[in-house]
Structure formats: structure tokens, C-alpha cells
Amino acid sequence: MPPESLATARRFVLGRQGLWPGRRWEGRRGVDQALPYIGSVQYDPVNVVGRSPDLALWGRIVGYKTKYLEEALYKKRTLFETGGNVQIRPIGELPYVKIVRQRKIEEKRWRGFARGHSRLLARVTRELERRGPLGPADFAGPGEPRIQKYRAGKSAGLALYYLWLKGDLMIAYRRRGEKVFDLTARLLPRTAPEVSVAQAEEHLILRTLRELGIATSSEWLAHAHTQIGRSTLRHEWADRIRRWRERSIIREIEVNGWSGRRWLLSEGAPDLEAIRSGGFPSAWSPRSTTTEEEVVFLAPLERATARGRASLIFDFEYVWEVYKRASKRRWGYYTLPVLWGDRLCARIELRADRPSDSLIVQGFWPEEPALRRNLEFATALGRALVRLADFNGAKLVDSAGLRSPALERRVATTIERARHHTTVA
Fold this sequence. Notes:
Layout: H1 6-16, E1 25-26, H2 27-38, E2 41-42, H3 52-58, E3 61-62, H4 66-74, E4 79-82, E5 87-90, H5 94-105, H6 108-116, H7 118-131, H8 155-166, E6 169-175, E7 178-183, H9 184-187, H10 197-212, H11 217-228, H12 237-246, E8 250-254, E9 261-265, H13 269-276, E10 296-297, H14 309-314, E11 335-340, E12 343-353, E13 358-366, H15 375-391, E14 396-398, H16 405-424
Parallel strand pairs: 1-3, 13-14
Antiparallel strand pairs: 2-5, 4-5, 6-7, 8-9, 10-11, 11-12, 12-13
Helix pairs in contact: 1-13, 5-10, 10-11, 15-16
């Protein structure tokens, strides 16, 4: 089979993550439809124009609101959060992550913690049984030992975190960002089905490739061994690849401009064929605008672009600089990639300013200077700014940070038309 084009490969990766050719889910139901398809979104507490998981869903779901995710997590329990790199996953994944949790708490540091704090763990569990949902702040008092740990400031808080890692607890809700835990058996009274270690590993490894879309063998392995919590996976990797290929579970392709060969799940072959033929799968049909008509500001922890994948797939340098010192930042505190069509064409730094009821563009860095003069891009950018302003409850958009009078004028015109259309409607 001849090599795939770069455009086909990019669209496939984006489409399998629900980001192209446009938002294909809608409203409250969209959360429970999107997550099983894309696999997971990563949680991060920083909120400048929305937390990372909310931005991820905002970019995929028409009319998305933060309360929809909260309802799915803490009321309907159709989703759950795993530690410690907090991923939000469909509840159906719970049996498969059991082995990962077991391997996590078997690490030397957590084995030592459990042995040295058995009484503390028992006390915290009894308090949860007696009092119901509790967070670290609920263990107060002069006799409560304080510690200096990244995960907690009190021994009881670290005990809660350990029991969450283990799976004995789930996050009942968040209180001003703080995790409040309850017993898993109380939140999910129905016992999850048991799966074997072999079944769980195969499911998690193949799901990793589904989330990546297309990956080299080494890239897939790097993500997969993290997903299953076992670094020795590398010793059997070649044999697993061979068996999956013989069973036609995976297939190998080449992409023009990319060195080496890459893998994808065979289930995705019809999607790839549809894109190669100049279209897209019918299930990917946008509910509103396409990414050509309206850009999408990608969440900072997107699977398609985070951890170096923006460079590999899109030839686009992206580092989320929110946790860097100001003096070390090249762009800005909360800078996001701008997806236009199937390309990452710019970076934009945004901030929701509640006192002034505004969404503020603080910086803009296009890949090509000519983008500032592109009228189609200006219209697509204006539409996205209106959508993000509405998501943040902002009535005004301050676009001075675009640093281009022509681009600002065109964006302002698009925003005014969109606001007028909303008012009339």
C-alpha cells in the first residue's frame, strides 16, 4: 500500500480524538458519548479560561458547560478519576485499571507508607465509614500531624490519597478544587466485573494505540508501559506486536514525510480510507461549524499535541508554560495551540477577567506572518473567541493582544455579527 499523505495522517489522529472536522457531540449527553470514544481527558486544576478537561470537552461538544462534567463524575457516576496523574475515564474502564492501581501501591514508597501507617489508614477509613465524604481539611485539630509532601499537608490527607490510589476510595466531589473522598463501595454499590491481568493489559495497551491514533512502535510502547504500570513490557513487546498483527488487530502504514513505519488499530482502517478518499466517516459529521469555519483552542493536555506530539505530528513546537518561571517562558502563562482545519497555525494566550466581564487576548503568535492578513482565518478566530467568551460567561472580548489592527478589525466584525445574531435569535 502506498504511503499516506501528511494531511490524511493528521486528520486521522485528530478525528480519532474527536477534534476534526468539527464538534460532533452536543450538550449534556455529549460528555457520556465523547469520553468512551476518545478514552480519557487529563485533569489539571489551573483555571484561566477553563480547566484543561473542560477545555478539552468544550472543543468537542456543542454547548458544553462545566456542570455537565461534574454531573457525570459526581452524580451519575458514568465517569471516574484515577490517580496520581489524574485521568478522567468512563466508568466501564474501572475493572481494567485495577491492576494499575495494585502495581502503584506495590511501589517501594507506598509499601513503606502502608506498613508504617497502618493505624492511620484504619482510623481514616473508620472516619469515612462514620462521617461520610471527607477531604483533608476535615481532619483538623492540634493533634493532627502535619507533613511536607507534594500530595498532602497532613498525614490524614496522604492517607486519603493512598486509599484513593488503591481504589478503596473515589472522589465524591470537589470542594473549591479540593478532593473530597468517600468509600468506593458506598458510591458504587454494584461490584465491577472481574477481568484477568492478561485481559486488562491487552485492553489497556490497545486502548493506548486507539487514543494515539497513529504511533511508532517505540512511541506506543512508551505510552503503553505507563498505562499498565509495568516497565518490563519492553521485553515482550516484539512478540505482542507480532501476535496482534497476525490476528489483524493492528496494521502498519507509512506516512510521507515521516521516517519509519507506524501502527494503528485495524478497526480504524475504514476511517483512514474515508479520509484518504477526500471525506470523513459519517459518524464524524460536525454538529455545528467545522474547524475550517471556526478555529479550536486546544486544551493544554491534549493527547494529540501534549508531550512532544505537536512536533511529531504537526511540526509545531508546543510546551505548556504554566508551571515554568516567568523568566523561562517563551510565550505566555496560559498559551494554547490554535487548530485551524487540520493544522496548528498559531499560539494564543487568553484570560477570562471576571471583574471586567471580559475574555482578554493577551498574546498571539502565528506560525506564518501572513496569517494576520487572512480574512478567512480572522472570521474563524472571531467565532471561536465568541464561543469561548460565552463558555466563560464573558460579555466582552478584548482582542488588543492580537497586535494587528487589520486582524482585530475583522475579528471585531465577526464578534459583533455573532452577538447580533444571538440577540435576534
